[in-house]
Design a protein that fits this description.
Length: 161
């Protein structure tokens, strides 16, 4: 995503709308979040004190896998009225790719589940199956019994001697 600063009229802003079709995200194969389409943007670009100011809306679709039910679901990161300020430093074209990648990736939810996806009113089919206190208690009891049995075994051995 590059902007040609020579196309921006003096003391005015240039409205730019478009899609970034290239996969700019640099996500790795092991990331559960995957890009699911082009980054859409509608911005106004202007020059402010030797800087390029780009302000507007960005929308990027992704898919992720729910950690509970393991379903893949779609969601979008939507930055509205978002500003990017980049020094021009004598360049005629400014590449915004790194800045927008950083800001969108920072806005990604850290452990999204399927209820946060685009499907309205979704209830995760696996919700309620995790972190029930009963499960933890059961494990503790089993271990306590085991160590009790071990103690009795030791005692029995002593009695035999
Ligand atoms: Zn789920």
């Amino acid at each position: 995503m590059t902007i040609d600063t020579r196309a921006i009229p003096e003391n005015e802003s240039l409205v730019i709308e478009g899609n970034v079709v290239d996969d700019i995200w640099e996500l790795s194969e092991s990331d559960i979040v995957k890009s699911a389409g082009p980054l859409k943007f509608k911005v106004a670009a202007s020059i402010v004190d030797e800087n390029l100011l780009v302000r507007g809306d960005f929308l990027a679709p992704f898919t992720s896998q729910c950690p509970h039910c393991l379903d893949t679901f779609k969601f979008s990161v939507n930055l509205t009225e978002h500003s990017l300020l980049l020094p021009i430093e004598g360049n005629s074209t400014i590449d915004l790719t790194n800045s927008i990648r950083e800001d969108i990736l920072l806005a990604l939810p850290s452990f999204p589940n399927c209820e946060e996806g685009e499907e309205n009113n979704r209830k995760c089919p696996a919700s309620g199956k995790f972190n029930t206190e009963g499960d933890f208690e059961e494990i503790e009891i089993k271990e306590a019994k085991k160590s009790l049995l071990k103690d009795w075994e030791e005692l029995n051995k002593l009695n035999l001697d």
